[in-house]
Amino acid sequence: MSELGLGENDRLFILTGAGISAESGLATFRGSGGLWNGYRVEQVATPEAWEADPELVWRFYSMRRRDAMAAEPNAAHRALAALEQKSGDRLYLCTQNVDDLHERGGSQRVHHMHGSLFESRCVRCQERFTDRAFYEKAAALPVCATCGAPVRPHIVWFGEIPLNMEEIYAHLATSTHVLVVGTSGSVYPAAGFVQIANQRGLKTIYVGPEEPLNAEAFDTIFLGNATEVLPSFLR
Ligand code: BV8
Ligand code: ZN
């Protein structure tokens, strides 16, 4: 039985946020004083921002994609991958992050509820673009090779509906434990998952260096950096 208190038949729902990538050098949303190169994330991560200035939004995500490509996964990403190895399909990893460090840290199944920096879609015919070559040449605002319409980041902006919510709720309904790592609990519906877990009597655990806004909803809080705390769950 690890510090997580997982038994043989327990099922673990994991939610991660920007904090798990902080030690890989990727800025968090609120750690940077909520500003990205002078922009509030709510200003550039909205459909209105895209309508008003698609080039600015495309540049904002191209900068974040470059940062993500230059970053390396850390011991926290690798610990969750090792936990997946041990638990198989009894572990469901949902991330709010749009970087690919969980995958590069070894996790096989990752649900990006807010989309990914490495996926874009045509605003008209919805064609998806995921190959890296697309990004290398698409410095300026790309257009769809099929229909000529603009291509947008496949990212869930504020006011948009997170991806595969029914899949997330289904896993919350069948889990016995919820582990939340490195998220301030400031954005919904992600910040509300722990309340759903409480209503179902699940064991709820938080890991991070400071209490999240929804701290009162957790049974246990391990205060510390993810790279220090998560590997201890494997022992
Ligand atoms: C929706 C992709 C309907 C973009 C993101 C008023 C009240 C309540 C809600 C609302 C409201 N007005 C509007 C809303 C809804 C809104 C919302 O919640 N707004 C907030 C600002 C109030 N939500 C939405 O619009 C969502 N859609 O509601 O649709 C719906 C609802 C239910 C069901 C169906 C439909 C869509 C929101 C998605 C927006 N996109 N990301 C991009 O990346 O550019 S959000 C983005 O910010 C993240 O993905 C994440 O979700 C969120 C918060 O970021 P965090 O990951 O928590 O990072 P943060 O910096 O905040 O915190 C970092 C944490 O790490 C800290 O706690 C820190 O202590 C910790 N940390 C630091 N170092 C470490 C560490 N932890 C561990 N180790 C370390 N070393
Ligand atoms: Zn198209």
From TrEMBL:
<feature type="binding site">
    <location>
        <begin position="96"/>
        <end position="99"/>
    </location>
    <ligand>
        <name>NAD(+)</name>
    </ligand>
</feature>
<feature type="active site" description="Proton acceptor">
    <location>
        <position position="114"/>
    </location>
</feature>
<feature type="binding site">
    <location>
        <position position="122"/>
    </location>
    <ligand>
        <name>Zn(2+)</name>
    </ligand>
</feature>
<feature type="domain" description="Deacetylase sirtuin-type">
    <location>
        <begin position="1"/>
        <end position="235"/>
    </location>
</feature>
<protein>
    <recommendedName>
        <fullName>NAD-dependent protein deacylase</fullName>
        <ecNumber>2.3.1.286</ecNumber>
    </recommendedName>
</protein>
<dbReference type="InterPro" id="IPR003000">
    <property type="entry name" value="Sirtuin"/>
</dbReference>
<keyword id="KW-0862">Zinc</keyword>
<dbReference type="GO" id="GO:0005737">
    <property type="term" value="C:cytoplasm"/>
</dbReference>
<dbReference type="GO" id="GO:0036055">
    <property type="term" value="F:protein-succinyllysine desuccinylase activity"/>
</dbReference>
<dbReference type="InterPro" id="IPR026590">
    <property type="entry name" value="Ssirtuin_cat_dom"/>
</dbReference>
<feature type="binding site">
    <location>
        <begin position="17"/>
        <end position="36"/>
    </location>
    <ligand>
        <name>NAD(+)</name>
    </ligand>
</feature>
<dbReference type="GO" id="GO:0036054">
    <property type="term" value="F:protein-malonyllysine demalonylase activity"/>
</dbReference>
<dbReference type="InterPro" id="IPR050134">
    <property type="entry name" value="NAD-dep_sirtuin_deacylases"/>
</dbReference>
<feature type="binding site">
    <location>
        <position position="226"/>
    </location>
    <ligand>
        <name>NAD(+)</name>
    </ligand>
</feature>
<keyword id="KW-0520">NAD</keyword>
<dbReference type="InterPro" id="IPR026591">
    <property type="entry name" value="Sirtuin_cat_small_dom_sf"/>
</dbReference>
<dbReference type="GO" id="GO:0070403">
    <property type="term" value="F:NAD+ binding"/>
</dbReference>
<dbReference type="InterPro" id="IPR027546">
    <property type="entry name" value="Sirtuin_class_III"/>
</dbReference>
<feature type="binding site">
    <location>
        <position position="61"/>
    </location>
    <ligand>
        <name>substrate</name>
    </ligand>
</feature>
<feature type="binding site">
    <location>
        <position position="125"/>
    </location>
    <ligand>
        <name>Zn(2+)</name>
    </ligand>
</feature>
<feature type="binding site">
    <location>
        <begin position="182"/>
        <end position="184"/>
    </location>
    <ligand>
        <name>NAD(+)</name>
    </ligand>
</feature>
<keyword id="KW-0808">Transferase</keyword>
<keyword id="KW-0963">Cytoplasm</keyword>
<feature type="binding site">
    <location>
        <position position="144"/>
    </location>
    <ligand>
        <name>Zn(2+)</name>
    </ligand>
</feature>
<keyword id="KW-0479">Metal-binding</keyword>
<dbReference type="InterPro" id="IPR029035">
    <property type="entry name" value="DHS-like_NAD/FAD-binding_dom"/>
</dbReference>
<dbReference type="GO" id="GO:0017136">
    <property type="term" value="F:histone deacetylase activity, NAD-dependent"/>
</dbReference>
<comment type="function">
    <text>NAD-dependent lysine deacetylase and desuccinylase that specifically removes acetyl and succinyl groups on target proteins. Modulates the activities of several proteins which are inactive in their acylated form.</text>
</comment>
<feature type="binding site">
    <location>
        <position position="147"/>
    </location>
    <ligand>
        <name>Zn(2+)</name>
    </ligand>
</feature>
<dbReference type="GO" id="GO:0008270">
    <property type="term" value="F:zinc ion binding"/>
</dbReference>
<dbReference type="Pfam" id="PF02146">
    <property type="entry name" value="SIR2"/>
</dbReference>
<feature type="binding site">
    <location>
        <position position="64"/>
    </location>
    <ligand>
        <name>substrate</name>
    </ligand>
</feature>
<comment type="similarity">
    <text>Belongs to the sirtuin family. Class III subfamily.</text>
</comment>
